Amino acid sequence: xxxxxxxxxxxxxxxxxxxxxxxxxxxxxxxxxxxxxxxxxxxxxxxxxxxxxxxxxxxxxxxxxxxxxxxxxxxxxxxxxxxxxxxxxxxxxxxxxxxxxxxxxxxxxxxxxxxxxxxxxxxxxxxxxxxxxxxxxxxxxxxxxxxxxxxxxxxxxxxxxxxxxxxxxxxxxxxxxxxxxxxxxxxxxxxxxxxxxxxxxxxxxxxxxxxxxxxxxxxxxxxxxxxxxxxxxxxxxxxxxxxxxxxxxxxxxxxxxxxxxxxxxxxxxxxxxxxxxxxxxxxxxxxxxxxxxxxxxxxxxxxxxxxxxxxxxxxxxxxxxxxxxxxxxxxxxxxxxxxxxxxxxxxxxxxxxxxxxxxxxxxxxxxxxxxxxxxxxxxxxxxxxxxxxxxxxxxxx
Length: 397
Description:
Layout: E1 3-4, E2 10-11, H1 13-26, H2 28-32, H3 42-51, H4 66-74, E3 78-84, H5 92-98, H6 103-109, E4 112-118, E5 122-126, H7 136-141, E6 146-149, H8 153-164, H9 171-182, E7 185-188, E8 195-208, E9 211-221, E10 224-232, H10 237-252, E11 256-258, H11 264-269, E12 272-275, H12 276-286, E13 301-303, H13 304-309, H14 317-352, H15 370-379, H16 383-396
Parallel strand pairs: 10-11
Antiparallel strand pairs: 1-2, 3-4, 5-11, 5-12, 6-8, 6-13, 7-8, 8-9, 9-10
């Protein structure tokens, strides 16, 4: 079918063929790189890449529609982008003569934007939340921050562009991300059209008072979350944002955190490198499971330290609730047995004890009896100890 850009005119199949030939002619690299479109069965493409142990990570496409992005996400491609500029080398006038319908896109993007779906030969993953290292410094500093999901995607995209340059977040990419963030794509299985879930693009914001000091772009489907890019404007806030986000993902019930390309800071945090085949296999296991996105703090701010502390607890939020209920039931059962035992012992002692008058807790004038007063006084903490206890309680809250 026709290729369509968000907010751009339709490009006919004939014009698309002309464009591909032109790209091949000017840039030989793309002639050697597999071209993808929505006509391809992306699942088969991935299967071939895994079995053939394809050396290259990259493919290319000229389709920035949200539905195509969703298919790429779902099949394991991390779609970055590049810009051919100037395009064509002879100037914008030539594109007007060859493919007039693309002139607006080329002018706005200052060149021809090309999608570069990446299927990494080695992928950086967190498959076990217990591997994440939480530094004492990051946790301590996190107490003054709050974290949110999907409150300010435009601000986060602007922050990423400001810190890294447009890099690959070109106008048509930002248009697609904004569209999926506002309206997640419902994915349907071919050929029966059965719904398999929604693909979402997320913005994550770390707040200091009412100012965003770090942010991230990512996407999710099933029980998989993928980080795309991020930024920070204060020292340590990038680390705090990632740790707090990881805590919330774990608490919600996500089982795979995909971090794309392996970098040292990711490994230092606890992520591990996995071969393409391992990543694809795990992706297939998790992508059609019910999404736990409803358990994320979408549209609201929550305490960053509390989120980080979820990483210290075993199991997801659901697991913890079940574990708490189980412990409660066990406690109730054991408590019931214990109460019966105590009652039996008490009854036995009562029978054995000689009858005597009970000693009153208070004397007739309202004061504690001498023996009791001495005991009460001995149990009261000193002023120093009381202050220490109060101080400890305040700092822990």
